[in-house]
Each structure stands twice: as C-alpha cells, then as structure tokens.
Amino acid sequence: RPGWPGILEAYASFLPVTEHTPRLTLHEGNTPLVYADKLSERLECHVYLKFEGANPTGSFKDRGMVVAVAKAKEAGKRVVICASTGNTSASAAAYAARAGLEAVILIPHGYVALGKLAQAVQYGARIVAIRGNFDQALAIVREVAEPLGMEVVNSINPYRLMGQQTAAFEICDTLGRAPDALYIPVGNAGNISAYWMGFTRYYEEKRIHARPKMFGFEAEGAAAIVRGEPIAHPETFATAIRIGNPASWDKAVRAAQESGGAIDCVTDEAIAEAYRLIAQEGVFAEPASAASVAGLLKRHREGGLTRGETVVCVLTGNGLKDPDSAMRLASQEALVVDGDPDAVRRALGGLS
Ligand code: F0G
C-alpha cells in the first residue's frame, strides 16, 4: 500500500492494536504543520498551525474514530452511536460505512453546520435531530446505547482519546521536539486531554525532553470549566464547541494544571477575528478551530508569551464544514458583472 498508511498502522505500537483488530483506515493523520508567517512576525514567536482539517472527513475526530470503530468491529458490534455537534457524527458515519457498520447519530436540531450534516447524510447514517443541545443528546446516548447493544463512539469511549494522541506524536516527530506551548479549542474537553496523554507518553518514552504548557479555550458563552459550573444553555456561533457540560472536564483541568497552562475562554468576536487572520495565512479552518488562535492573541495581549518561543495552535476542523459562517462574516462579496473584458476591467477599477 503506497504512501501514508493511516494512524492504526503508523502508530501501532502506541495503540491497542491486536492481531484481531481490523486494519481500518481512510489514511487519516499525517496532517500539515503550517508555519504561520504573519502571526509569527506579529507575536515575535514561532507559530505553527496543526491543520487537522486535512483529515479525510475534515476534522481531528478521524484519529480517534478509526480506533473506536475498528475496536467496535473487533468486538463484534454492528451499530455505533454518538451525540455530536457535527464533526464526530461525520467521522463516525464515514468510518462506520468503511467498516460495514451502521451509524446512529444524535444532533442538536438547527445547530449543526451545513457541511457536517451533508457528510452524515451522504455516508448513510441514521440521523436523529433532537430539540435540545449537545449535552442533552450525549445524556440520551449514554442511556440508550447499552440496552440497544450499540457502541458509543463519543470521546467517553477510551479508544477515541488513544487515537487522538497521535496528533501530539506527529507534532513532536515533525518539530524534533515538543513545542513550548499548545493552544487548542475546548468543547467536550476530550482533545486537550488526548494531546496531554500523547505528550506525556512521548515524554515517558524519552522521545521528548519536556512537555508543552497546555492552553485550552472555551467559547465565552459556553465556558463551563472557566466558570466552574455547567451551563444549561450554552451559546456561541462556533457551534462545534457549543457545549455546557464537558464530559472530560476533570482530565482537561488536570492537563492544564500539570503542564503549567490554563483553561480560559474567548469571545465570539475574538473567534471571528482569529478566523479571518488564519485565512490570511492561507488556511481555511472552521470557527471553533479559531478559538486556539484567539486564545494565543489573548495571551499575547496579556503579556503571557515569551519572545522566540515555539507554539502550536491546533486547527481542529476544515473551514468548508461551515460555509454559512464564512459567508456571514465575509468582508466582501462577488461583484456580478456582464461577461465581457470591459465590464471586468471596470469592476477591477485601478487594481493592477
Ligand atoms: N473543534 C472542533 C472543530 C470540534 O468539532 C470540536 C468538538 C472541538 C474543537 C472541541 O473538541 O470536544 O474534544 O474539546 N466537536 C465534538 C463533535 C463535540 O461532536 O463533533 P473537544
């Protein structure tokens, strides 16, 4: 098999792969670590963007999902189920299709970005949209899955976080060391926990000599960890992280504390601004992903960065997932003109 084999094979020695584990892959992982020239110059740091939108279904979820679905199949399960703000469901639907399993997804009605919904539909998942939010959907999944014999593939499934560790491995493999700090969006708080597990694993195996400080960012209207209590009605336009009671709350807090980092929050306005700056680096990430860069800018403003340090911002999902946000926040629209050179020249007025 030519090229990158996917994470189950590439990182087999770090994953629960046995001789009975199906060699499932959509060639997930091996995503670009893009040097952000403009942000680096502005912040006087070395800023890298880990572009997880380059995964097969366009988000980091594929790393965990390939492991969770392979293990579900190994265990003889026929149906996987998850609650989702969109990306988990797109990934579950894709890997279930690949593995020949059924996927059932519970989503908050009206709060899933268009591209994510389109994926779940096309991959043939059974979609149930609840009148309620993600937290309620996850509570329902926890209640109904076991009696129905379905495998839960939310990040409460330990195989998910094991697979998601591989992004931390890749960053270290690419840089030849760990970054000084990692900036990452926080929703259900699984991914920050997985990265910390990954860095810790590499540290214990002596592949790196130090671990990064972990800085996680919730959206201000959904910042349960920052406030110290669950939020019944979380709100943010970054619907991927519109979550009021994160399942991996304690793990995320421990990652921040043990690493000397923090869990903080950023406003929707700051997320929208970071979303634009990321595009100026030539990278299109979805709004929730921009919480990492918004967090970096916030820490810079607070004087929290050291000149010359190396930081990685995790861009968790592809901008194409959420075309509505892109168009709503756009600073310009297409000029519609007649199809002749003069009309085009006039429209470009003065530009050369
Ligand atoms: N960024 C994106 C694009 C996401 O889709 C998510 C979570 C996060 C960040 C936050 O990661 O939950 O591990 O802290 N999306 C989940 C989903 C909830 O259902 O797709 P987390």
From TrEMBL:
Its cofactor is pyridoxal 5'-phosphate. Residues 79-123 form the Rhodanese domain. InterPro entries: Rhodanese-like_dom, Ser/Thr_Dehydratase, Ser/Thr_deHydtase_PyrdxlP-BS, Thr_synthase-like, Thr_Synthase_bac/arc, TrpB-like_PALP, TrpB-like_PALP_sf. GO terms for molecular function: threonine synthase activity. Pathway: Amino-acid biosynthesis; L-threonine biosynthesis; L-threonine from L-aspartate: step 5/5. Keywords: Amino-acid biosynthesis, Lyase, Pyridoxal phosphate, Threonine biosynthesis. Coiled coil: none annotated. Its EC number is 4.2.3.1. The keyword Zinc does not apply. The keyword Amino-acid biosynthesis applies. Belongs to the threonine synthase family. Catalyzes the gamma-elimination of phosphate from L-phosphohomoserine and the beta-addition of water to produce L-threonine. This is Threonine synthase.
